[in-house]
Design a protein that fits this description.
This protein has 479 residues and is mainly alpha-helical. It has a domain of 163 residues. Helix content is 69%, strand content 0%. The chain starts with 6 loop residues before the first helix and ends in a 5-residue tail after the last helix.
């Protein structure tokens, strides 16, 4: 069984490889499909051939009928989910699809709409019989269900219309090669942005685990860590005095000052408090903890991806190293890079970001604004860096192929970061401490036991050190 694509996917593909200035834009919801007339208008504005435009138009009507059928069910399902879970039923709906049935335009109505649009004026399919045959073949072979970039649809379109199946006046093979490479580039750019968001989210999840761990164990962990340091420092002083029996009075007084400093620092650290528990464990809300719909969360993620991708493109050390920045500008861009990429050193994360496992888009926008100003100071047009470079088709192909190699390497780099962050041993150990109430109780009991032991040893070492210092000052034999 072949792959099935929705109209949204096909339109995105054609927009990525055509994108003329006057491209007609379609607006509709997830379980909706625009009227056939609008789809034909889009195909005409994108420079599609009759065959591909017809496949889009038939897909629009099939998608509309499938959506109508789902709405009648008790629980309406998004089309993308339905097709993924029930591909056989979607295929059956496609096989049952017939022009002229259930408010779907008839073959003659399709022909009239294509004629009125002007698409048939110079097409070898302009004759009514040829157009009717084309619809029959598209329906019989289920070609309208295939993705827009599928070899089956491409080969069929080229076989029916030759070079006209491709946009532009080049041969169909050259045009298709350019479109495929262009689509690959766009897909890789989006994949990199998705990976960056995954890495950002994983980092924030790790921070959230650290925060929960401190909320659970901090009241014992903080004094325990301080006791460990104090015990270690006292033990070192005791060993030092024991190993040097001939210390002068001035050296002993200096050691007493050092002991006082150790106690002062421990007292300062003791004032730190563990983070207060928050009221909710859910990370699926929006800013402020307000619940968001799936559409709002998707839009938020897309904005994060877009901002992260642009910051990554314009602050990555390899990229800025090839440009004509001053040393000061490079340092400023590196600072922006580290601030935006939460998994890097120097990252500053707000508590709400950690809690919600969502990056603040307002923070990212401010960072991007600083980055853009630095680039503008160097005299670079930022917008041009986001589009294909080159005046001729060969130059654009060379740019795309070079950019694809760079994106492949950047994807490997980010995937390695994801593995490192996701497998961070400290975070995994903290997660293991909180797997169950029983495990939490066991860890707390162990911490209390260690804290008691350290406090006892600290008392013993303090008494021993005081005795040694006193004996040293009086010149006693105990030293």
């Amino acid at each position: 069984m072949h792959n099935i694509s929705l109209l949204q996917d096909d339109l995105r593909y054609y927009q990525s490889i055509a994108a003329p200035a006057d491209l007609y834009t379609l607006h509709y919801g997830e379980n909706e499909a625009p009227p056939v007339e609008e789809v034909i208008r889009f195909g005409q504005s994108a420079g599609l051939c009759v065959t591909r435009t017809l496949a889009l138009a038939l897909k629009s009507e099939w998608q509309r009928s499938l959506a109508d059928a789902l709405v009648c069910e008790p629980h309406s399902t998004p089309l993308a989910d339905y097709i993924h879970i029930h591909p056989d039923e979607a295929m059956k709906k496609g096989s049952d699809f017939k022009p002229g049935r259930d408010l779907i335009p008839s073959v003659d109505e399709f022909y009239a709409m294509f004629t009125e649009s002007g698409l048939l004026a110079t097409s070898p399919l302009g004759e009514r019989e040829a157009f009717h045959e084309l619809i029959g073949l598209c329906l019989a072979r289920d070609l309208f269900l295939y993705p827009a970039d599928s070899p089956e649809l491409i080969e069929f379109a080229c076989s029916r219309e030759g070079a006209k199946a491709a946009m532009g006046e080049e041969s169909s093979a050259d045009a298709e090669r350019y479109r495929i490479i262009h689509a690959t580039w766009r897909e890789l750019e989006d994949e990199l942005a998705t990976l960056l968001l995954r890495l950002e989210t994983q980092t924030l999840k790790n921070e959230r685990i650290n925060q929960r761990w401190l909320e659970t164990f901090g009241y014992l962990y903080i004094p325990l860590a301080e006791s460990e340091r104090l015990y270690s420092d006292l033990l070192a002083l005791v060993e030092h005095v024991r190993s040097n029996p001939g210390l002068s009075r001035a050296e002993l007084e200096e050691l007493e000052k050092e002991l006082q400093t150790i106690h002062t620092e421990a007292g300062r650290s003791r004032k730190r408090e563990a983070p207060l528990p928050r009221g909710s464990e859910s990370g699926g809300g929006g800013p402020g903890g307000m619940p968001w719909s799936a559409a709002e969360m998707e839009a938020y993620d897309e904005e994060c991806k877009s901002l992260l991708r642009r910051i990554w493109q314009f602050t990555h050390p390899d990229r800025i190293g090839r440009e004509g920045f001053t040393e000061a500008q490079r340092r400023r861009l590196v600072d922006c890079y580290q601030e935006a990429m939460a998994w890097k050193e120097k990252a500053r994360l707000e508590d709400d970001e950690i809690f919600l496992a969502r990056r603040s888009t307002s923070t990212l926008r401010m960072i991007l604004d600083r980055v853009e100003r630095i680039w503008e100071e160097m005299g670079i047009d930022l917008e041009s860096t986001a589009s294909v470079r080159g005046k001729t088709r060969e130059e654009r192909l060379a740019w795309l192929e070079a950019r694809i190699l760079i994106l492949d390497e950047e994807k490997k780099e980010v995937k390695a970061e994801i593995l490192a962050v996701g497998g961070d041993p400290d975070t995994r150990e903290k997660m293991a401490c909180m797997v169950s109430p029983e495990r939490v109780a066991a860890v707390l009991a162990h911490m209390e036991e260690r804290l008691t032991w350290y406090q006892e040893q600290i008392g013993i070492n303090e008494e021993e050190l005081a005795r040694l210092l006193s004996a040293g000052k009086s010149g006693g034999a105990d030293v």
